[in-house]
Specification:
Layout (H helix, E strand, L loop, with lengths): L1 H25 L5 E8 L3 H14 L3 E8 L1 H9 L6 E3 L3 H9 L9 E5 L2 E6 L17 E5 L4 H12 L3 H5 L2 E5 L2 H9 L5 E5 H6 L4 E6 L10 E6 L7 H14 L2 H9 L3 E2 L2 H5 L1
Length: 271
């Protein structure tokens, strides 16, 4: 009887120990280095959000890597250290989820953007919209592995003018930042970028038109989620959790909206 009681007491002690350990792990204070891979179009908003986040979590050092979502996806697949991936399209995020490199349960479609056609500020062009894009002498367009480049090609394909666009002189950028720079510097007559990018340099580019309503079947959603980081300490994992939650707060959304993004409506995602 005493032996049985001792076993029960030992089991109870082990359970208590495990529980205490779990509580201790979950109560880990966020600190350390946080590797966050972000689509280039998010750069300005995320820099401002970082400042606000660090007021609450001063011991977390956020290290941004901003580039095209396709490039970031490849870097993650090749083993680059990353804790959070904020993509400009579901395609790249879905691929990482399928490869077990991103945590499916943590992923949320957070923001929505628009695709627009731009020209240099005050620049002359015969182009009045996506419909007559081929009237331009040349165009700046992101590569096929870049979300905004994929969206642009989808628009042209759905409008039945992709073949004609391919006959144009195309300056292919590796991300949306390069496309924006090519247009505002006057290297290209027109270019395809996100509305938020155009808004960020409104004194240097003019928006010719927004993509026609029926030309883009794929919503321009920005998903964000946790990625697998085997090198992260418990405190760094806690930092990733905290930052992901912060990105979904009203305070963060207010900043995103200042830069032209819109929150994704839940009924759109579920519908």
């Amino acid at each position: 009887m005493k032996k049985k009681l001792a076993v029960i007491m030992l089991a109870g002690a082990m359970t208590a120990g495990l529980t205490a350990g779990s509580v201790q792990a979950s109560a880990e204070e966020p600190s350390g280095e946080l590797y966050v891979f972000i689509a280039a179009s998010l750069s300005n908003a995320m820099e401002e959000i970082q400042k606000d986040f660090n007021e609450e979590y001063p011991d977390v050092e956020i290290l941004y890597n901003a580039d095209s979502s396709g490039t970031l996806q490849t870097q993650i697949e090749e083993g680059s250290r990353c804790d959070i991936f904020f993509s400009a399209a579901d395609k790249q995020m879905d691929a990482l989820v399928d490869e077990k490199l991103a945590d499916k349960d943590s992923v949320v479609d957070l923001l929505e953007n628009k695709v627009v056609l731009i020209k240099p500020k005050g620049g002359e062009t015969k182009v009045t919209g996506f419909e007559n894009i081929t009237d331009a002498k040349n165009i700046a367009l992101a590569g096929e592995d870049v979300p905004v480049g994929q969206y642009g090609r989808e628009i042209f394909t759905n409008m039945g003018i992709m073949d004609k666009v391919n006959e144009m002189e195309i300056n292919e950028g590796k991300n949306v930042t390069e496309v924006l720079a090519a247009v505002k510097e006057g290297s290209n007559e027109v270019g395809v970028v996100y509305a938020t990018d155009a808004a960020s340099v409104a004194d240097e580019v003019d928006v010719i038109a927004e993509a026609p309503a029926d030309s883009l079947k794929t919503p321009v959603y920005y998903p964000v989620g946790l990625t697998v980081d085997a090198e992260a300490s418990d405190s760094e994992k806690a930092a990733a959790d905290a930052f992901l939650k912060y990105l979904q707060t009203d305070d963060a959304m207010e900043i995103f909206e200042e830069y032209g993004f819109a929150p994704v409506e839940e009924d759109k995602v579920n519908g």
